[in-house]
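Quick note —
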Amino acid sequence: MKIDLTETTSSKINAALVQARRDIGTPAIGMVLTLVIVTDEENAYDALKSANDASHEHPSRIIVVIKRASRSPRSRRDTRLDAEVRVGTDSGTGETVVLRLHGELVGHAQSVVLPLLLPDAPVVVWWPEGAPSDVAGNPLGALGQRRIVDTYATEDPLTELAARARTYAPGDTDLSWTRITPWRSMLAAALDQQSVKVTSATVEGEDENPSCELLAMWLADRLEVPVRRTVSSGPGLTAVRLETSQGPIVLDRADGALATLCMPGQPDRAVALKRRETAELLAEELRRLDPDNTYESSLKFGVDRLEAGSAAAAKAAAAPAAPAADAAPAAKAAPAKKAPAKKAVAG
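Predicted structure written out below.
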């Protein structure tokens, strides 16, 4: 069932939700959380489809906040709230409210969303793209226990990772981090089977891919070993190599679906490691509502290394040409973009 409301209010939207549930014969509320999606018209369809798919695992009230751009002074003065209420088969296993904010109301979205939150239920706020620099300090982000962004959808993922580390607050997370959960699980299981000491690691994947960077940060943080980034044509992450005292442990995924795990003294094994859709990533994030301390530690550890590398690059570029004997140390300090085939991330 769909109900369109023009020039409406939050109280009228709540009344429409109650009436819609009665009309379809399900007056009781069986939802476990409120998912607030902050997006634009261009990305609203894909984001809502992913949220509806995830709702089969996590029945929720989905509130989509679309801030309509005002093209003229007159339209900016036209403060208006339009809404679309969906229940039943049109809204996965929960309820959906699509809000379109016009005029000055765009700057006060939290006042519209607050009365629509489920009582005594956790709130998750998701920005599919265009997230603010400080999501916890954002008025809508302040409503949520968890705040989800996706650095892969930004113009400069590495700069975005540094910004996320500076403004991190407990409850923040990133779908680029969620994408590497199977990789982290597989590598941890491989090390559990091998009683060896890791001496160094290499992460291979697309250039400027935040998931590759986050995996390298996690390895450097947890193993306390040098980690290098090498660039491949993808898709996404393609390989991780751990150098150990008994030989290398290699997890190689060349086609984005099936990977090969190679360990010393054991036959090679094929393992499923497919690239997941946004709905699967979102469903994983909705399973936990507590702060992700591992993500926080990895994010902050790696950012320090990336910033140090950028500073070294700027210093090297400003310095006069060095003699040939000094060329090797200078090259070693160069950042990723100076030597894309062998890019130092952490050490």
